[in-house]
């Protein structure tokens, strides 16, 4: 492929990636939103997702350090503030710990990441390494799953409140801010890649970066499904395993 896509064409190609590969399509999410998971399975999701949430500002700090102009850095650094907060107890990570506690987990245990699945750690670490090692353009493009997050957030909140009587609006407060933060962040990143992908090869790298990020999110749910749904083989040391239960006893 040698012909450049128009900016509209590149955006359409990126949105096609989300339509076919975003993790809203994963069977685990369908079970979660449909009220088909046990409390233990929901806890496993909240625990493992925490590691992803906690690494997002690390990823964003790497991108921030690579942006060459002050205007872009001013925009991007807001992502770190959104997740880390301005003070202890503030920000998205603190709100995710509130979610974890709301579904019955010990926040200190969640923060330790001792019980997460190996695949969760490998997938999230791979994302951080991707942002560190690939081009700045690819690093920015990999964040574009935020184009699709408002839809899954709306489905998740409505589904969990309707189907789990032990989940409250206060438990899910993390998602309130993301309904405005994610579109704002996605708008900047989308405009950035449309402006800075100036060859067809660069456009393909942008599309591939978004595919990679979708794979990172999908792999995390694959691991949850395999460990806690079917066939239900929990790795040693992970949440719910005999070793983890003995350690917590």
Automatic annotation (TrEMBL):
Q: Which reaction does it catalyse?
A: 6-(2-amino-2-carboxyethyl)-7,8-dioxo-1,2,3,4,7,8-hexahydroquinoline-2,4-dicarboxylate + 3 O2 = pyrroloquinoline quinone + 2 H2O2 + 2 H2O + H(+)
| Keywords associated with the record | Oxidoreductase, PQQ biosynthesis
Pathway assignment reads: Cofactor biosynthesis; pyrroloquinoline quinone biosynthesis
**InterPro entries documented for this protein:** Haem_Oase-like_multi-hlx, PqqC, PqqC-like, Thiaminase-2/PQQC
Kindly give the Pfam families that the UniProt entry links to this protein.
TENA_THI-4
Q: Which domain of life is it from?
A: Bacteria
Q: Which SUPFAM superfamilies match?
A: Heme oxygenase-like
What does the record give under GO molecular function?
pyrroloquinoline-quinone synthase activity
- Which example biological process does GO assign this protein? pyrroloquinoline quinone biosynthetic process
Tell me which residues make up the Thiaminase-2/PQQC domain. 12-222
EC number of this enzyme: 1.3.3.11
Q: Which family does it belong to?
A: Belongs to the PqqC family.
| Role description | Ring cyclization and eight-electron oxidation of 3a-(2-amino-2-carboxyethyl)-4,5-dioxo-4,5,6,7,8,9-hexahydroquinoline-7,9-dicarboxylic-acid to PQQ.
Q: Which NCBIfam families match?
A: PQQ_syn_pqqC
Could you tell me what this protein is called? Pyrroloquinoline-quinone synthase
Annotated source species: Acidocella aminolytica 101 = DSM 11237
